[in-house]
Amino acid sequence: MAGKGNENTGGDFSFSAAAARDALPRITTEKGGKSTDVCHDDTAPRVNFQTIDELHSLQKKRSAPTTPLRDGSASGVSGTSGPTTPVSSETMLQSVSASLASLTRETGPKLIRGDPTSAAKVAHVPVTPTSLPTADVSDSGLKFTHILHNLSPAELYEQAIKYEKGSFVTSTGALATLSGAKTGRSPKDKRVVKDETTEAELWWGKGSPNIEMDEQTFLVNRERAVDYLNSLDKVFVNDQYLNWDPENRIKVRIVSARAYHSLFMHNMCIRPTPEELENFGTPDFTIYNAGKFPCNRFTHYMTSSTSVDINLGRREMVILGTQYAGEMKKGLFGVMHYLMPKRKILSLHSGCNMGKDGDVALFFGLSGTGKTTLSTDHNRYLIGDDEHCWSETGVSNIEGGCYAKCIDLAREKEPDIWNAIKFGTVLENVVFDEHTREVDYTDKSVTENTRAAYPIEYIPNSKIPCVGPHPKNVILLACDAFGVLPPISKLNLAQTMYHFISGYTALVAGTEEGVKEPRATFSACFGAAFIMLHPTKYAAMLAEKMQAQGATGWLVNTGWSGGSYGSGSRIKLAYTRKIIDAIHSGSLLNASYRKTDIFGLEIPNEVEGVPSEILEPINAWEDKMAYEDTLLKLAGLFKSNFETFTSHKIGDDGKLTEEILAAGPNF
């Protein structure tokens, strides 16, 4: 009938062949070599598949990653995905199998690359036996473990949403997830192996964050973690870097059980290019994150079901009993605090930015001092927000991302962080609307320590690669709730070392009615929880580098003026920004100064845009006697804190130690 319809037979039903083609698609038949002819519509392009499975196979293709390259260029949208398949499967699987090898079995586990739910069957790649002692094979040794190696954020989203309860996509595209019972670090459960080398090199004893464990106990925990990971159907493996300085970067491998942890470290470490990943080889340091599985509390040195263990000799870290991802980030930071000084490189817990003329500033400060806010400046390039190295060639960011606090986050206050919370970003422990998935950053139902982890490229004015020349200014931030420190002081070298070692800020004791007394907080080197060596060693390196490069030290109080917390008022952020601008511009180097009593700090007589009456703290206090009493109280707290460090001599003759002590409060 289709053939007859093309004939002009006259009458009401007649139409031309051209009109017929315009009215309906032309349907024809082809001989398919079978008894049944195959019909197709030739008005659309022919397709390259015959079945629905073939169609699905065409949906995905291999593509180059979008990781920023060392010269700062990137393909596609920066930071939104990572390399997925460039590395040789055989080489990678052999390397990972060696990492996951038990200490009591001859070979590492049998590994397969890819998701165990995938329809594709991948042959097992044989691994090279190790020289470890043999033992009876275990059930886990008979099974295959699937390795999900350097997955992209999109792939990790799929894994998290499908398999990890509590994972959701928020309205801005970020991945919201939960860290379980632990919503912060567990410093009392952190252990460092004490052996002949570390006993001599590390800081032990009063004030130190390093709590010892022996080698045998570490191996017990390592075996527990490895056995747990090998018992799983799949594990996530990240091969990445620390330190943007290519001459001093560290290769790290993170083996974990959760997509959340893999995506977190994808963001926080430096993402390798395909060529770098293909030649990655053996890692310099390995993390075994078995945080979903507890440690054995009957094991020696264990005080809870959580244990975070670092073995500097084996270059390994084991995590048991906590799923909080920050343990990995800060654990690696501690490792860098040990490895970098061995290369005469200073590791720093600081923010860092650079002006358009290449002038670099370091920002040190504890929580609440404004370190993140002040180092993030739209008029300057962000090198990094938290962890840096200072080498003979300049500064470099240790990380590839930012880990920002989210509590009370607002677009108006922190637009860069707000806009960075998009696809690829991990949101920890936030609360959101069950329908719209809009996050309520004021909600503390899960924890106050809500966080966002995102690639540094998500900050518009970030400098890629994250390196810069030698710093010109070293800014120490203190939120002085006692209200007696000046808003700005210029420090000499000894004073810079004294206040760097002290690491002072002050917090309000509580929010209960009637509580007005501030509480002093001291954290050596503004990061005592992460340092490995004695604080004076980092201070001596800082002084040496500042002296060699002509850098200037500054103490900036972002806290109270005109009285302590409860009677005075917080120094306006606008004033603090004017002070920071004056430091960057160099105008304060040419200002006239006067010296304060007790602390001996040099205060500028004027700073453009800042009321002169607040520059000298006593002038802003109505009750002068109360000011004097509070000043002496704070000075006493400084002296008491510094007693921990007085017995440690710097240099052969200890002369520098005497200079640092003399730079403290004198009364």
From TrEMBL:
Pfam families: PEPCK_ATP. It catalyses: oxaloacetate + ATP = phosphoenolpyruvate + ADP + CO2. This is phosphoenolpyruvate carboxykinase (ATP). One of its GO terms (cellular component) is cytosol. GO terms for biological process: gluconeogenesis. Residues 72-91 have a biased composition (Low complexity). Its EC number is 4.1.1.49. HAMAP family: PEPCK_ATP. Involved in the gluconeogenesis. Catalyzes the conversion of oxaloacetate (OAA) to phosphoenolpyruvate (PEP) through direct phosphoryl transfer between the nucleoside triphosphate and OAA. GO terms for molecular function: ATP binding; phosphoenolpyruvate carboxykinase (ATP) activity.
